[in-house]
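[Automated response] Your request has been received and processed.

Submitted sequence:
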Amino acid sequence: MSVSVSNLTKIYGRQRAVDDISFALGNKEIVGFLGPNGAGKSTTMKIITGYLAADSGNAEVNGITVNIHPIEAKKQIGYLPEGNPLYYEMYVREYLQFIAGIHQLKNGVSTRIEEVIDLTGLRIESNKKIGQLSKGYKQRVGLGAALIHDPKVLILDEPTTGLDPNQIIEIRQLIKDLGKNKTVLFSSHILQEVESICDRIIIINKGKIVADDTLTNLQSSNKNAHVVIVQFARKINIHLLKNLAGVEQVEEKENQYHIQTADPDKVKKLLLELSLASNLDILSLQSKSKSLEEVFRNLTV
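Generated structure:
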């Protein structure tokens, strides 16, 4: 495993910011780390990267225990923190040169800097001071700093913050490309972004892991994860639908009935039988899985 977290706990006063959590990330896996504000995402990332000590439990990166060998572990990690601290008086290349020096890169540093500049789309702004850049380009500089030493593991806390829609698409594609050769753990409040990028999703709430699976499995295993949408030729008594087996909830929206269920195929079959028995003409009948946003809300409310 590239990253292994075992029984990790961090307490602030009376608050258990991270509460005995465990998970592991495989090689070349892109994992979305989701949760409401204050759920423990950033705290967990800081512990994995060695910037914060856990009260108990362990984090390992490529077999290196972070709290025992923090420097060796950090060599394996590229970290973009949520705040993205930068030196605004430095020029872009100067800053990347500085970060390369911190990582003690010796050979081919200039070539690597140019590679990272192209990789992160900084070429057009590469001759400016960081303080002169837009928020989106500052974010790219932070990402470049995380990549400069070509780490095996990337920990990205809100990597697309401040980017415009076109830049977000570019960074998403970059993360996908990086995931072909690196393990990536990233947090985001843009759930569509997570859906489009991730192999797997971990959801944390109030310091505890409440879900860890693929999006497809989360949708299928989550109670009432499907919605059947039916439209009849005329208005009907909604209780006819509520009384069908497998129906958990029914909501009427613009002449359509939205039915929450864990078994959409069964409900659709019962709707067809109901239409025949009660002489009801069905104009449309379809089912869809709940979005990640709906699954997320069900798990974190």
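Summary generated for your ticket: The longest helix spans residues 165-178. The first strand starts at residue 3 and ends at 12.
If you did not submit this request, please reply to this message.
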